[in-house]
Amino acid sequence: xxxxxxxxxxxxxxxxxxxxxxxxxxxxxxxxxxxxxxxxxxxxxxxxxxxxxxxxxxxxxxxxxxxxxxxxxxxxxxxxxxxxxxxxxxxxxxxxxxxxxxxxxxxxxxxxxxxxxxxxxxxxxxxxxxxxxxxxxxxxx
Length: 141
Hints:
Elements: E1 2-9, H1 13-21, H2 26-29, E2 35-38, E3 49-54, E4 57-68, E5 72-79, E6 82-92, E7 98-107, H3 109-117, H4 119-138
């Protein structure tokens, strides 16, 4: 089961990428994220491990599986019978803005059930996170 949301941001793609890739700072702008801890050093890259804590969801350890700088990253968490994949995609708009797409997929025998159980919560979280990215990226420094 996959869920997604999309939002247009009035900021250049590089600014939005800076907000997105600094995962440790997500709790500053995402009300859906309690804490984010990097489990390794260096810049976010394929293989990076990150522990994310969110209200009403068990703490989850993600591993970055794909990363294209200034464009996208995907991370995945696995557990018995479930695989959660979260995609973060940026698309440059001709107006100097950026389109952000956030998607979460729950797969596996338990994942399908979890996806249905958490469907409304996931929709709310995706929307809040997209709005947080927009607000943080559009904020003038």
